[in-house]
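Case 336 in the screening queue. Each case pairs one protein sequence with one candidate compound; here the compound is adenosine-5'-triphosphate. For every case the pipeline is the same: read the inputs, emit a complex structure as C-alpha cells, and attach any notable structural observations.

Predict complex for case 336.
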Amino acid sequence: MQDAVNQEIRLAKFAQVFVGANQLIFGLERVLVIWIGANLALQSVFSVGMLIAYLAYKDQFALRMAGLVDRAIEFRLLRLHGERLADIVQSEPESSNPGGLGRPDSLRGIEIRNVSYRYSEGEPWIVNDCSFTIKHGDSVAIVGESGCGKTTLVKLILGLLKPDKGSLLIGGIDTSQLATNDLRAMIGAVMQDDQLFAGSIAENISFFDSDLDFDRVQRVAELAAIHLDISAMPMGYQTLIGDMGSSLSGGQKQRIVLARALYRNPLVLVLDEATSHLDVMKERLVSDAIKSLPITRIIIAHRPETIASADRVLVMEQGRIVHEFGAQVQLETASP
Ligand SMILES: Nc1ncnc2c1ncn2[C@@H]1O[C@H](COP(=O)(O)OP(=O)(O)OP(=O)(O)O)[C@@H](O)[C@H]1O
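Case 336 output:
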C-alpha cells in the first residue's frame, strides 16, 4: 500500500515535470517555426497560405501526440490502481466461522493462558509464554519498553493474529472457537495506524453503517470529545474528509477513530496509543468519559497521565507480563 502511494507520488511528480517541459519545448518550437516560415515567405520560397496550412496541421499533430502521451501516463496509473485493488481482492477472506462453539459470556472477561507468538519461524518469540486475566469492567494499562510486544499482544486479543502456542479465552470461550463476527462485535479497538476513509464524518464514525443511527453518532462523538470540533465545522457531521482523514489534525483524527470504535457498543475497548496526539486536558476529558462506560478497557500508553486512568498496570518485558500493580502506586513512584 505504502509502495503504491510512493509510486503514485513519483508518477505525479513526473507528470508535472513532463507538462512543464512539454509547454516550454513546444512554445520555443512555435516561435522558431513562425520566424523561419515568415522569413521564407518574405523570400518568396514559401507562400503565406502554405505557412498557415503547415501551422494548422502541425498543431493538430502535436495535439494528438500529446493526447497519446497523456493516455500512456493514465494507463500506467491504471496499473497502480489495479495493484491497490489486487491487495484487497487477493487477500484471503476472513473465515466467519459460523459454527462457533457458542456465545461468549461477556461477564467472564479475558484470559490469556501461556500465549506465545512470533511473526515467522526462526524469528524470536515476540509474545513469550504470556499469561494474565482481565475481569469484565476492569481498566488495564499495559506498559513496557518500545518493541517489547504490546501491540502484538493486543492484535492477538483482537483476533488479528493467531497464537502459535497457548490459548486466549474471551467470555470463557477460546478465540479459535469463537465466531469471528461475535469476536468483532465484542471488541472495539483504536490502533496506532488506524485510518479514516474518504466520506463524511458521520459515515466514518458509523463506519459506513447502512442503517446509520445519527443520535448514536453524536453520542459517541461527545464521549470522544470531538463533538464540539465537528459542530464548529461549516457542514458539521456531513463535512467530507479526504482519503485517510487528510483534512483533520492528528488529534481530531484520533478522536474520530475512537468515536468509531465506540459506535459499535463494544464490551471491550482496546486503545493502543489512541490518545497520544491529544493534549493533557482533552485526554482527561476522553478518559473520564470512557471510564463512565461499563466496558473492559485495555490501554497501551507511554504517558503517565494515560496510564493513571487505568485501575491496574501490567508491565511487559520481552513478550511477557513480569509485574503488576495499581496505577496510583505507579504514579506515586514516578512523582518526585
Ligand atoms: N508485521 C511484523 N512482522 C515482523 N515483525 C514485526 C511485525 N510487527 C512487529 N514486529 C516486531 O515485533 C516486535 C514487537 O513489536 P510491537 O509493535 O508489538 O511492540 P510494542 O511494544 O507495541 O512497541 P511500541 O511501544 O513501539 O509500539 C518488534 O521487534 C517489531 O519489530
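Case 336 observations:
- The mean pLDDT is 85.
- Residues 189 and 270 are 5 Å apart (CA to CA).
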